[in-house]
Every structure is written in structure tokens, then in C-alpha cells.
Amino acid sequence: MARGLLVALPVAAAIALHYAGAAAPGTVESLYSARIYPGIAVSLNAITRLLPFAVSDLLAIAGLPAAVVLIARWARHMGSGPWRAFASALRELLRAAGTVYLAFLLLWGLNYRRQPLAVRLGLQTEPAPLSELNQLAEELTADANALRAGRREEDGAFRLEAGIHGALGHAAAGFGPPLAALPHDARPKGSLFSPLLARFGISGIFIPFTGEALVDTLIPEAEMPFGASHELAHLQGWAREDEANFVAYAACRAHAAPDFRYSGALMASLHASASLAARDAEGARRVAAARAPAVVRDVAEIRAWQQKYEGPLSRLGDRVNDSYLRSQGDPRGLHSYGRMVDLLLADRRGRHARPDTMTP
User: Fold this and answer.
1) For the purposes of burial, counting CB atoms within 10 Å of the CB of 147, is it exposed (0-12), middle (13-18) or buried (19 or more)?
2) Which segments of 110-162 does DSSP mark as H helices, in order?
3) Is residue 358 part of a domain?
4) Residue 359 lies inside a defined structural domain of this protein
5) Domain ends where: 65, 81, 113?
């Protein structure tokens, strides 16, 4: 009986919290995301940011011998019969899964159930006419062209003025109210597993259990500031991918460093161009033709990096990520990243209506 309770309690609590949060986004926003989560994020980040390496990398390494121990325990139970061994292993697996998922929800995952960012910022995300999407793509491309001028290069490729680690050190400087839950000393870290992340097609990852925003340091440097800002957006409590993309763009746009402003404009322009291509291929070609030569080289480097790591592992990574996002209540899965354009359009609409203001 006691053994059954040890399994049932964390599983039942995790399931109850999962569905209760989904049913009450307003409560999640006002109670958890606005009050409880910032304290959790600040506390975790205050510990892990003191270390120059990613604590989560070490935990992943330590998890390998732990897995061996668990397999050995399961094998030892085989002596009492395969069914008893299977039942024992299943109980331990369910208890561990329930405990981990409950911790995930409490430490960060409930942010998936908060109110949409558009509600928080007062943005109207109604469907936009094709002409408006064209204008957005053209404007973002023009911004990227202007911001690319004078940036540091090496063999024709964009290079960060402060280097990768220097850029990561001040990535949080663009975040401010109402988008930030943490002070400006939050810092993304490069992962020891960057080569493996690249193989899985992952440019960055946020680890809720340590409060660490990790970046694949192998991605092209033109993408790095935006990618770092995206993972920091997760750390700030913006869990949905389209919202983290938009927050990353807003943070890059507000950043003092030109490298960040360029990276944000470049990546936003690529998202807008991809959405435009789905509706107007000729319009997307005109936007692409308007890119400055240096921007064309940066886009080619990003696409070459993606092609370099395409393969079975990247496809597996996409399937896992898609399933994960769907399990957190987003039926569009990986396609949710592209919904950033809806927020960009709403932001543009708001700024054109109020030219003397800027959405954060």
C-alpha cells in the first residue's frame, strides 16, 4: 500500500496541476508567472550564474552512471521472476516520471499555461492582409541591411564584436519591463554538448531544473545574439516558442549593442520572409533580392549550418521537440515557432498607430 502511494502521489499531483493550470490561465498568470516564478528564477539563477560552466551539463554526465545503477537494480530483481522485475521497474519509472514532471511544472512548466503574451502587451493578433505581411518583410530586411553595415567580418562572415563569450555576458541587457522577470545579470552559457546539440538541430535549450539558458556555441555568429536572447526569454518565463522568439526580437531591438540589434532584425526578417513565401513566392523572392550582399552571406552561412547537420539525429530531434510542444498544449508543435510573425505584425500595427511609442 505504501509503495503504491509513493508512485501514485507524484503522478496524480502532476496530472492535476497540468490540467488545473490549463483551465485557469488568468490565475496562472497572476499567481504563478507574476509572483511565484520570478522568485524561483532569481534564486536558481543566483546560484548557477556564479559558475562559469553549465551545471546541467555536469548533471547530464552524472546521470549516465545513475542510469547504470538503475539498470543493475532492475537486473537484480530478475532473479525473483521477470514479471515481478517488470512490475518493480515500472513502479520506479512511474514514480520518477511523476516526480520529475511535477518538479518541471512547479519550477517553470506552468508558464506554458499563462495568458498569451499578446494579452499582456495589448497586441491585436488578427489575421493580416498579404500587403501588410509584405511590408513587414520589407521593413525588417531594410533594418537588417542598415544594421549590418560596419559590422565586424572575418573572411566575409559576420563576427561578434565582443566574441561569443563576450556577447553572452551582456545578452540580458536588452530585457526590461514588462518582459523581464530577472535582473540584467542573468547570463546564457555555452554548452559542453554543443556538438551533440548541433547534430540534433538544436541551437539552444533552457533547463528549468537549474535555471540555465544554454546556447549551442557552434551556430553562426549572426544568429548567436538572437538565439541567446530566445533562451533568456524562456528563463524570463516566456515558455511558448513563438512568444520567446518575439521577446528575443524585442530584447535585441532594445539592446545597446549593434550586433544584437542586427541579429534580431536578421532572424525576424527570415521568419517574416518564410511566412511570406508560403503565401506569395514572388514577393518573397523580391524581399530576398533586396538583401545587402553582406546579409546574403550571413543567410547563406545560417542555411549552410542547417544543411551540414541535417540527418537522422536532427529529424529525431525535430520529432521529439514537436511531441514535447504538443504535450504542453500547443497543437501546432514545431510550427508554433512561426507564429512569431503574428506578434511581429501586431507589434508593427501598434507602432504605426502610435508612432511616438514602441512596444517593449
Assistant:
1) buried
2) 117-121, 130-148
3) no
4) no
5) 113
Q: Confirm if 192 and 307 have CB atoms less than 8 A apart.
A: no
Sign of the alpha-carbon torsion through 58, 62, 64, 66: negative
Angle between helices 281-289 and 130-148 (to 10 degrees): 20
What does the chain come to in residues?
360
Kind and range of the H or E element at 226?
Answer: helix 224-235
> By residue range, what is the domain housing residue 20?
2-113
Whether 152 and 266 share a structural domain: yes
pTM of the model: 0.89
pLDDT per residue over 14-46, tens digit each? 889 989 999 999 999 999 999 999 999 988 888
At 214 the three-state DSSP class reads strand
Q: Which stretches within 34-129 are classed as H helix?
A: 37-48, 55-77, 82-107, 117-121
Using CA atoms, how far apart are residues 199 and 92, in angstroms rounded to an integer? 31
Same domain for 251 and 279?
yes
> pLDDT band for position 128 (50/70/90)?
confident
At residue 177, does pLDDT exceed 50?
yes
Q: How far apart are the C-alpha atoms of 232 and 171, rounded to whole Å? A: 8
Q: Quick one: DSSP state of residue 36?
A: I
Q: What is the number of structural domains in the chain?
A: 2
Kindly state whether residues 96 and 130 are assigned to the same domain: no
| Domain finish residue from 45, 80, 113 | 113
pLDDT at 357 > cutoff 50: no
* Residues 82, 19 share a domain: yes
CB-based contacts of 303: which residues, under 8 Å, 6+ apart?
A: none
- Do 176 and 263 belong to one domain? yes
